[in-house]
Amino acid sequence: MRVAVLVAAVCVIVVAWHRVQPPWWDTAADLREMRDNMTDGIGYEGTDEYTPVGADPAAIDKQAWKVRGDGSAHAAIHVLEWNAESKSFTAEMSAPDQLALRLFYYPAWKVEVNGRVVQTTQREGTGQMLVPVEAGMNRVRITFAQTWDRMLGGWISIVVAAGLSLWSLRARAREAHRGLKPASILAS
């Protein structure tokens, strides 16, 4: 009887999962398009709750260059590295200007121009990061830094994991202790 109830419960969950609440709102074609966009370097639009305040992912040109000059200065840009958490490029500028990146402005991005940390801004409407540069050769290095909230989250996870491990070990020790008492009574 228990097996029949278990099988019925699993069937109800599976039917409700697929008929009442579909597991995902994207179709297989949507996922293929997302994969192709990542492979082609276009990226994906993402969702509004993960974009910076004031940014509009729909306003971003998906075909935009990774880096381009934002003003009238001539810029010769060479991208050396463009990974998820680190980017590196050079920009030979004819005059001081800003570079517009195909990258949202987040506080965790640490930007160095010619070895000095610089303060970046964001373009109104799109939220794209703008990096100030000087005339001449500029070596730009961008890394995703560890912020206090991410560090705190990591420590909370470690403390909770240690607490659960300790609780589990103590529970096993109590069970083992309880199991030994009856055996020791019977032996005496």
Task: Note the topology.
Elements: H1 2-20, H2 28-39, E1 67-69, E2 75-82, E3 86-93, E4 97-104, E5 109-113, E6 116-117, E7 121-122, E8 128-133, E9 136-144, H3 148-187
Antiparallel strand pairs: 1-4, 2-3, 3-9, 4-8, 5-6, 5-9, 7-8
What does this structure look like?
The strands form two sheets. Strands 2-3-9-5-6 form a five-stranded antiparallel sheet, with no helix packed on it. It is elongated and about 80 Å long. The two termini are about 40 Å apart. It contains three helices and nine strands. It has a domain of about 80 residues: Sandwich (Immunoglobulin-like). Helix content is about 40%, strand content about 25%.
The percentage helix is 25-40%
- The beta-strand count equals 9
How is the biggest beta sheet arranged? 5 strands, antiparallel
With helices defined by DSSP (H or I, 4 residues minimum), what is the helix count? Answer: 3
